[in-house]
Write a structure and sequence with these properties.
Radius of gyration: 13 Å
Oligomer: single chain
Strand order of the largest sheet: 2-4-3
Number of strands: 5
Shape: globular
Order of helices and strands: EHEEEEHHH
Largest sheet: 3 strands, mixed
Structural class: alpha+beta
Helix content: 40-55%
Length: about 120
């Protein structure tokens, strides 16, 4: 579950679990929007608007998009082997944005590290 045919990650099938992560951190379903794409940003899989407290995640994430994100996260020097699993990848993505919303002053690296630590706990 969570991986669609052709290796795509089907975020839409995990909507309830993603919303649950938001609720565990004082946010709610209204803070999540699943989108078809990010115009002008072909390899982007997610983003957040901190002030609006909104997380946007692509409904279907390609293996190439996931690989691009993993390459970026790998640059932080952390062990990211758990992110090979599609559900852990989605959890990390959501938690990274939760951190960005709740701790707006934190740089991406710190939020990614926080997400890596906390994804095993939610």
């Amino acid at each position: 579950m969570g991986t669609a045919q052709g290796g795509f990650i089907d975020a839409e099938s995990r909507r309830e679990e993603l919303e649950s992560i938001l609720e565990q951190h004082g946010l709610g379903p209204e803070n999540l929007e699943l989108v078809e794409e990010f115009p002008g940003e072909p390899m982007r899989v997610s983003k957040c608007q901190k002030i609006l407290r909104k997380v946007y995640i692509k409904k279907a994430i390609t293996p190439e998009e996931k690989k691009a994100v993993l390459a970026e996260v790998k640059g932080f020097g952390e062990d990211i082997s758990a992110l090979e699993d599609d559900w852990m990848f989605l959890k990390h993505t959501m938690l990274k944005h939760v951190c960005s919303i709740l701790q707006r002053w934190q740089p991406d690296y710190e939020c990614s590290k926080w997400a890596l630590y906390n994804m095993k706990r939610v």
